[in-house]
Design a protein that fits this description.
By secondary structure, this protein is mainly α. The protein is built from seven helices and no strands. The longest helix is centred in the N-terminal third of the chain and has 23 residues, at 4-26.
């Protein structure tokens, strides 16, 4: 039986893969190139997380992630013209993937026996690192290094997760609330132009 966290992981993979493939299509990548960008976006953060945690990268044991990315590519191929006309499509899928992956990173870190502060960092890594790899592949300044709230949304989600744990909420509800917290933090930060001060050099 597939666990709730696995379902979250697959949905996050699909969402992040679409965000990567969508940007690759805007850069006129071919199908294979778009698939590589989508796959790197989807598994890049989790791969880095697993290496830091000292375990084998998750996708090496579960080829389903490669299949999910292929489904995302097929989705963009079939409905690409509709997605392209939706200006907020990339942002929506990216925010959803960010929230879901942050929760997955926290869950896996705690399962490996690490303390919660490590789990928060791993949640941020899982959510944001794939986007960094995506932006490097398409020759853009990584979103995490711009003034928009991105990685900090994952940190906020980590604190929400901790609060839910403190009040002993059910695991599935904790995961849902924490992921929603990340997504809302990201969406509201962009909508209301909330950002960190920019470091200005001479």
């Amino acid at each position: 039986m597939i666990s709730f966290i696995t379902i979250i992981d697959y949905i996050g993979t699909f969402a992040f893969a679409i965000s990567g493939i969508r940007l690759a299509s805007a850069k006129q990548f071919d199908w294979f190139g778009a698939y590589v960008v989508g796959l790197a976006t989807a598994i890049g953060g989790g791969t880095l997380r697993d290496i830091l945690l000292g375990v084998s990268p998750f996708w090496m044991h579960q080829p389903a992630y490669l299949v999910v990315t292929a489904c995302a590519l097929g989705f963009v191929i079939l409905f690409g013209k509709y997605l392209i006309h939706l200006n907020n499509t990339f942002f929506i899928f990216d925010a959803i993937g960010l929230g879901l992956f942050a929760v997955v990173g926290i869950e896996k870190s705690l399962a490996c026996g690490f303390s919660f502060w490590v789990a928060v960092i791993m949640g941020m890594t899982t959510g944001a690192a794939g986007g960094v790899i995506r932006d490097v592949f398409i020759n853009e300044v990584p979103l995490i290094f711009r003034k928009e709230i991105y990685a900090l949304a994952c940190v906020f989600g980590g604190f929400v997760y901790y609060i839910c744990m403190y009040f002993c909420l059910p695991p599935a509800l904790t995961q849902f609330i924490a992921a929603t917290g990340v997504i809302l933090a990201r969406v509201l930060a962009v909508k209301y132009h909330v950002s960190l001060p920019v470091l200005k050099g001479r």
